[in-house]
Design brief:
Bound molecules: adenosine-5'-diphosphate
Strand content: 15-25%
Shape: globular
Largest sheet: 4 strands, antiparallel
Number of helices: 7
CATH class: Alpha Beta
Distance between the termini: 22 Å
Strand order of the largest sheet: 2-3-1-4
């Protein structure tokens, strides 16, 4: 078991549907601790950085447009094995393929944009988490 911190983004679909608190309560119910939280609008620059692994995909412009529909809420969340456990709680990228009981299965879009409007981003490794926390939080904003 490892004490880790992960970076979560509540995406614009979560903000628009008023389900941020509902999803956050699932994380808190696991005993995970909030170490940082803020609302911010994602610039083209930060999105190009954050999504550099998909920047050459044909769907990237629609992801960028989606991620700029509203400001997002960034969360630094700490807990034992939190990185993998949050990914498990979310379910797969495609909300249509996500089982009931997972966050994407319960709250993600099931039609059209199911692969994109999937409620939350969460870091997928300790290396990514460290990089992403630095990307979204300034010194002194994570406690
Ligand atoms: P995850 O967010 O589950 O780690 P990826 O890193 O592969 O998934 O993709 C980043 C984000 O890009 C996804 O969460 C989703 O919003 C969007 N995305 C991924 N694949 C597609 C696709 N085929 N069509 C549209 N959007 C996609």
């Amino acid at each position: 078991m490892a004490l880790e911190t992960t970076l979560i983004l509540f995406k614009p679909d979560a903000v628009a549907k008023n389900i941020v608190g509902t999803v956050l309560s699932r994380f808190e119910a696991q005993g995970f601790k909030i170490r940082g939280m803020k609302m911010l609008f994602l610039s083209d620059e930060i999105l190009a950085d954050h999504y550099s692994h998909i920047a050459d995909k044909p769907f990237f412009p629609s992801v960028r447009e989606f991620m700029q529909e509203t400001p997002v809420i960034a969360l630094a969340l700490e807990g034992d094995d939190v990185i993998g456990r949050v990914r498990d709680l979310l379910g797969p990228t495609d909300s249509k393929a996500a089982a009931a009981g997972t966050i994407r299965g319960d709250f993600g879009d099931k039609e059209g944009d199911a692969k994109m409007r999937n409620v939350c981003h969460a870091s997928d490794s300790p290396e990514a988490a460290a990089e992403e926390i630095k990307r979204f939080f300034k010194d002194g904003e994570v406690f």
